[in-house]
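Hi C.,

You asked whether I'd gotten around to modeling the 185-residue construct. I have! Everything is below, sequence then structure, no commentary in between.
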Amino acid sequence: MQSPPFETNRPERPSNISNLKMGALGLLQFAVKVFLHFLAWPLLSLGYPICASIKAIEANSVSGTQKLNTYWVVFSLVLLFEHAFVMLLQWFPFWPYIRLMIVCWLVISDFGGASYVYKHLICSGLSLYPQIVINWFNKRSESSFKRLKLVAEVVRFLMENGAEALEKLIASKFGFRWRWGRGVC
């Protein structure tokens, strides 16, 4: 038997109301994603703490300033961690949401997240061997100072005596002849 000519096998079109609902739902999902990805992170991690810092400074509050200093130290470490492991964190699709939850935990003073992290991770890590950390930084600064001093001396020698004199000095000290522009011969 043949079907009547006015009937088709196409599915029914959704009504305009269901199109409107789907469009509004899509718009709402888009708005939530934009808020979470682009607005919530800066507002919670920077906007609120900056306003609270200004209030604490103006009120001359020691405890408020201490809490906010703790937050800024921990927050900077979170940013350093994120910067150091950016290639690894790209593989975690939920990292922006996890970061937002971490910042909420750090910012909201009722949770005490920043002071907890500072007391249990930062202070305990630095108080174990502070002299080792200080010595390490001193060695690094001394070696970089020596390198800078050497470069300054070489530049001074070049300016005073010229390139040929530097060539002769290097050849006499190290036993080879350096030809500018051609490398070691």
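If it helps when you're writing up: The chain has a mean pLDDT of 77.

Thanks,
B.
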